[in-house]
Please model this.
Amino acid sequence: ATITARISEELNNSLSALALETNRNKGYIIKRAIENYLEEKADILIALSRIEKGEETISLNELEKKYELED
Model:
């Protein structure tokens, strides 16, 4: 699918500089940015949904202890 979006000149300049620096085209960088954004948001939405449903939660401390990840 093709998507068209208007971006600021500043954002376009940053995108062009990154594309040049990484030897990638702008489309590749935009695609990866969208994938990363959606993945991050999906994790947050899943976590919120589980909290709202009253599913069991575990603190980071408890998780580290359970799997012996403490320093």
